[in-house]
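In the design runs reported in the main text, the only information available to the sequence generator was the tokenized backbone. The following block is the verbatim input for one such run; it is reproduced so that readers can re-run the procedure and compare outputs position by position.
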């Protein structure tokens, strides 16, 4: 008889919630790597008891529930989970056979409501030991375009407002977990760096003509949000988070670039960095797959950002010197009307991500 609890039999399943505090059955399985952290914060009291070892029973804290997950090959149909998890908005796509997901997160009032997710984690011992986490959001997500033009990779830090497990008498899951019948996409369409064009311009209107050729080696895009978890004494007899308020959003883009006339020298991107005053730049990452989502429409992802350079560092790529320019997004209330815009064309339907009252 095999020993139960195989690493290769772990599964990660998510479902978008209709309301904060109301967990839902998962709607999709994702090919992620990693495990959640369930810290109940048991703490011994600092008291004198006539003994040099703990004697009085500890108290349970509010708990800290998180998950550090990775995706070694980002697929177009997984992008909405990331955009919803970090930006919120409870966005639903338009289309049909080809779905278009548009995220234009707000930087000013009225702010977007968070999109909350229920997360299920389990292995082959699921009937006795499956976990369910509620009110999940992404504290941060890092998307990397690797050297060699391969598939993009993703690192995620999830935060949850509640935890339950069918191994617990006092905190059983509701609805029951795991949700049956969900399988990962066996033939996903991946987002490759080889399919991306880099565009940089002085205005948003100039982006379409601003392609930077023969320069980009890699990139790292990191999106972080800050939130305050609120717990109110409502006679609910639970430590679960009662509500949450977003207090900050930040986007950082690090571009590793060859030394060309576009990247070094007067009038270049390095010149825009080494300036007496900050210079506004508009940067587009434009991915178009060779795979058709339906008919003659390919899978695609376009990201537009209003940015300013903050640092330049020197690096190398094999035998060549390269530079790393790091930019931060800023809110442009003018013609760009925002700080970040994401448009994905894929085949993921709203029901696959989860309802959110769609």
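Verbatim output:
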């Amino acid at each position: 008889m095999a020993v139960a609890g195989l690493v290769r039999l772990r599964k990660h399943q998510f479902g978008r919630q209709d309301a904060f505090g109301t967990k839902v059955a998962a709607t999709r399985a994702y090919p992620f790597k990693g495990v959640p952290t369930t810290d109940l914060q048991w703490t011994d009291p600092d008291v004198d008891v006539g003994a040099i070892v703990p004697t009085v029973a500890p108290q349970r804290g509010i708990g800290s529930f998180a998950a550090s997950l990775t995706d070694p090959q980002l697929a177009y149909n997984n992008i909405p989970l990331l955009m919803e998890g970090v930006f919120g908005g409870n966005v639903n796509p338009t289309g049909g056979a080809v779905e278009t997901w548009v995220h234009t997160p707000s930087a000013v009032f009225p702010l977007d409501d968070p999109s909350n997710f229920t997360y299920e984690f389990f292995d082959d011992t699921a009937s006795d030991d499956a976990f369910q986490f509620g009110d999940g959001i992404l504290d941060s997500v890092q998307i990397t375009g690797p050297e060699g033009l391969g598939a993009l990779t993703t690192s995620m830090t999830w935060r949850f407002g509640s935890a339950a497990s069918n191994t617990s008498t006092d905190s059983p899951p509701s609805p029951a977990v795991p949700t049956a019948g969900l399988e990962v996409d066996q033939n996903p369409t991946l987002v490759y760096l080889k399919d991306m064009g880099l565009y940089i311009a002085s205005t948003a209107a100039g982006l379409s003509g601003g392609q930077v050729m023969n320069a980009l080696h890699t990139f790292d895009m990191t999106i972080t949000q800050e939130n305050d978890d609120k717990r109110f004494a409502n006679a609910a007899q639970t430590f679960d988070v009662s509500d949450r308020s977003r207090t900050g959003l930040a986007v950082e883009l690090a571009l590793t670039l060859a030394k060309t006339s576009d990247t070094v020298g007067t009038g270049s991107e390095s010149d825009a960095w080494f300036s007496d005053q900050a210079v506004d730049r508009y940067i587009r990452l434009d991915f178009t797959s060779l795979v058709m989502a339906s008919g003659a429409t390919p899978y695609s992802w376009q990201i537009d950002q209003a940015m300013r350079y903050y640092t330049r560092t020197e690096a190398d790529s094999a035998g060549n010197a390269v530079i790393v320019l790091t930019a931060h997004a800023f809110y442009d209330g003018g013609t760009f009307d925002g700080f970040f815009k994401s448009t994905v064309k894929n085949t993921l339907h709203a029901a696959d991500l989860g309802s959110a009252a769609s």
